[in-house]
Each structure stands twice: as structure tokens, then as C-alpha cells.
Design a protein that fits this description.
- The protein contains 17 helices and 16 strands.
- The N and C termini lie far apart (about 55 Å).
- The protein is globular.
- Helix 4 packs parallel to helix 8 and helix 10 crosses helix 11.
- The N terminus and C terminus are likely disordered.
- The chain has two domains: about 180 residues, 3-Layer(aba) Sandwich (Rossmann fold); about 190 residues, Glycogen Phosphorylase B (Rossmann fold, 3-Layer(aba) Sandwich).
- The protein has a six-stranded parallel β-sheet with strand order 3-2-1-4-5-6, sandwiched between helices. Strands 11-10-7-12-13-14 form a six-stranded parallel β-sheet, with helices on both faces. A two-stranded antiparallel sheet has the order 8-9.
Length: about 425
């Protein structure tokens, strides 16, 4: 048996030095959040000061822009990233299209996510903003180029569906007379209509509801809007033939431009057991979905899984977003992690079982939240998300994904699957 070595007993000087370095490191780690908070406070104070000159400029321009403000004919919606977030803007799009039926509505969205806007009947035009809006992925020249593109359009009304002050500043630079957006941490200094939004994990708001609050600010009618994604005839033709018992599984997720958050994934072995039960106990067909980066993960799920040939199909990396939506339309159930495919499944109108961990379903759950066909499972030990305001906080528990059990998910599966199959299981 190896003899345990006490660093302090065998190497006292090294132990003392290591202890000093550790203490210094801990001191720096404590200082870093303090400095970050101080920086955030300074930025917020500056933004509040900037409100005064921007308000004065708007008051001077008001007599010349009154008609455009009251009866907008050209509207721009700005939300560069990412797929799931853009899907959660679709209830808002439905509302403004109904409120402004004659207006031309343009969506400014990043290359990664523009496919969602392109599948929205409420949208007339899409402007690809490239990587602008993705932190660390764009330059000042990229930003200025987008400003020039927007200025040429001469928009009357802008809705900024993002908390970033850089993005809320865009329509002011583009000369848009009325600018509506969230006032996160008091930073909406360049907006004409600011909407208060929570910046505390103790008071969570669903992202779709935050966007709808912008419409409420203008007094627009909100009548049970839903998420949407309209597939094309070509995409539907490319989908698998209809089946009364097809279930989509998505064990991947957590990847977006500028961010990797694989902590959002439920354990793979549990998805493997879930797939086995679906096939053997409910005689279901299972499709494993995802992008090219999810193909290997799905293959790992299939390893050692004893199911009939053809019972499970790995479609990861084999479909576009539109084709994936068409595949989901022909499923009776989606089961997966908090991800864009989860929101896509809700958008095409199928039941959803969403498994949550570091994020909260109160913010990112399948919408609408009162739809009984959408079930979000979340057991965070603190009741507050580790991922908030676009950042992953330090997690000292890391039990939230493990806390969702196979039996819990299976019970929900049995409640949502067609009743005729319950008796045959």
C-alpha cells in the first residue's frame, strides 16, 4: 500500500509557499467579482446620465417624426442570436403583424439564426447581420457596416429584442425615430420607449414574455400568441413518411456561436434507457436528431442498445433546420434538453418534454408555459438558475441534471403518448 505523503510534514517550505500562493489566488478570485460588480455599476451610472442628452435630441426631432412614430409603415426587429432565442420572438412577431397589417416588417438577425426569420410569414424581409451581436465575434467595422445598411432603409419603428446596449444603440445610429427595447440594468439610454426587465435570478421572466412586454408597452393587443415555424412544401416532402408512434430524442445541445454549455445535457445513459423503453414497451419509432456535432453523441447512445433494426434512426447532421422542423411535425412527442430543437418542436406544435439543469424553464421553457402538452422537468437545489444573463455562474451543487430520474421522465412519456398505445405496452 502506498504511504500517503503530507506536504506539510515532508516539505514544510514548499507547503508554506503553496499555502501563500493559494491564499493569494483565493484573494484574487474574491476581488474579481468585486471589480466586475464595480465596473457594472459604473456602466449603469453612465447609461443613466446619457439618457438626458438622448431625450433632448428626441424631443427636438419629435415634430418632424410624429407621423412615422404614430403610423409606422416600415418596422425593424433586431435579434441577432441565437436559434432558440429567435424562435422565442415568434409570438411577438405574430402580435406586431396583427397590429400593423400594412407595414413592411424587416428582421435583422445573424447568419446562424436567420433561418427562423425566413420561415415566418409575418416577416417581409430579412437582413443578415453576420456575427454582429455575438460577443467577441465582430469588429467595429462590422458594426458600422450594419449601421449603414439600416440607415438606407429609413425605418419608422424599431424593436430591439436584446439586452445589450450596443444593440439598443443600433437603431439610434440608423436614424429610427421610435425605438423600443428592454431597459436591462438601466442601460436602455438610447431608446424612446424603455421596458423594465428583471436582472435578478430571484425574479425570472420568460424570454417570450419579455419580448411581448415591448408590444404591451405600445398598447398592442396580446391574444394568446404562440411560437411558430412554417415549413415549406419541399421540406415536408423530404421528411420521413407519417407515423402514429414516432418520438424525437435530442441528447445533445448546449452549443451556440460563442458559447459551449454541455452542462445542459441529461446523462447519455438515461437517454439510452429511455430509447430502449420507447421501442420495447411502447413499440415507438425513435429518431435521434441534432446537427453534425451531435452525430457522434447519438452513435454512442446506440452502442450496445438491443433494439430491432430500423427502430431507431440517427438523423443528426442530415437535415437543415427547415427539414428538421418538417421531421418534428410528423412526431407525436419530443424529449430533450433545453435547446433550439426543443423550441423548434414547440413551434411546430407537438408535445414536448424538456429536461432542465443550469437554466430555468421559467425563462427558457417550451412556450406557451400554460400549454398542458409541454412539460418541463427541473430540480435545481437552490431554485435559481446557474446560467443567467448570458453567463454561467459558479455552481457548488451540480446535481440538477442527475436529479431528473428515468422514472420521472417515463411517467410523463406515458401521460403524453397516445392512449391506445398505453394498453398495448
Amino acid at each position: 500500500m502506498a504511504t500517503p505523503i503530507s506536504l506539510g510534514r515532508r516539505f514544510p517550505r514548499m507547503a508554506k509557499a503553496s499555502g501563500t500562493r493559494a491564499a493569494s489566488l483565493m484573494g484574487l478570485l474574491k476581488l474579481k467579482p468585486q471589480r466586475l460588480r464595480l465596473r457594472q455599476h459604473i456602466i449603469t451610472i453612465l447609461c443613466h446620465i446619457l439618457r438626458v442628452p438622448f431625450a433632448l435630441l428626441d424631443s427636438v426631432r419629435y415634430p418632424f417624426t410624429r407621423q412615422a412614430r404614430q403610423h409606422p409603415r416600415s418596422i425593424v426587429v433586431i435579434k441577432p442570436c441565437c436559434l432558440g432565442d429567435v424562435l422565442m420572438t415568434t409570438p411577438f412577431l405574430e402580435v406586431i403583424r396583427r397590429a400593423y397589417p400594412q407595414a413592411t416588417i424587416t428582421y435583422v438577425v445573424g447568419t446562424w439564426s436567420k433561418v427562423v426569420a425566413e420561415h415566418q410569414p409575418a416577416i417581409n424581409r430579412v437582413i443578415d447581420s453576420g456575427t454582429v451581436g455575438i460577443p467577441g465575434r465582430y469588429s467595429v467595422n462590422d458594426y458600422k457596416k450594419l449601421v449603414r445598411v439600416l440607415r438606407k432603409q429609413r425605418f419608422d419603428l424599431a424593436f430591439v429584442l436584446d439586452r445589450s446596449p450596443r444593440l439598443t444603440f443600433l437603431p439610434w445610429l440608423a436614424g429610427v425615430p421610435r425605438r423600443v427595447g428592454p431597459d436591462s440594468l438601466g442601460r436602455g439610454f438610447s431608446l424612446t420607449d424603455r421596458v423594465a426587465v428583471s436582472s435578478s435570478p430571484a425574479h425570472l421572466q420568460h424570454q417570450a414574455e419579455i419580448y411581448l412586454d415591448l408590444a404591451r408597452k405600445l398598447g398592442l393587443t396580446i391574444d394568446h400568441p404562440r411560437m411558430s415555424f412554417e415549413t415549406t412544401e419541399e421540406e415536408r416532402r423530404a421528411a420521413l413518411p407519417p407515423s402514429p408512434m414516432r418520438v424525437a430524442l435530442f441528447p445533445g445541445g448546449g452549443s451556440n456561436p460563442g458559447m459551449e454549455l454541455t452542462a445542459k445535457r441529461w446523462p447519455l445513459e438515461r437517454y439510452r434507457e429511455l430509447a430502449r423503453r420507447l421501442v420495447h414497451e411502447l413499440s415507438a419509432e425513435v429518431i435521434l436528431i441534432g446537427g453534425p456535432d451531435d452525430a457522434a453523441l447519438n452513435e454512442q447512445l446506440l452502442e450496445g442498445l438491443d433494439v430491432p433494426a430500423g427502430a431507431i434512426i440517427n438523423l443528426a447532421g442530415k437535415t437543415s433546420i427547415g427539414q428538421l422542423a418538417a421531421q418534428l411535425e410528423r412526431c407525436v412527442l419530443f424529449i430533450g434538453n433545453d435547446s433550439s430543437p426543443m423550441h423548434l418542436a414547440a413551434a411546430v406544435g407537438i408535445p414536448v418534454i424538456a429536461i432542465f439543469g443550469p437554466t430555468s424553464p421559467q425563462e427558457y421553457g417550451p412556450y406557451s408555459l400554460d400549454d398542458p402538452r409541454h412539460i418541463a422537468l427541473w430540480h435545481h437545489p437552490t431554485g435559481q438558475p446557474c446560467f443567467f444573463l448570458g453567463k454561467m455562474q459558479t455552481c457548488t451543487h451540480c446535481t440538477c441534471m442527475q436529479a431528473v430520474t428515468i422514472e420521472e421522465v417515463w411517467s410523463v412519456v406515458r401521460s403524453l403518448m397516445p392512449m391506445r398505445d398505453h394498453s398495448s405496452a
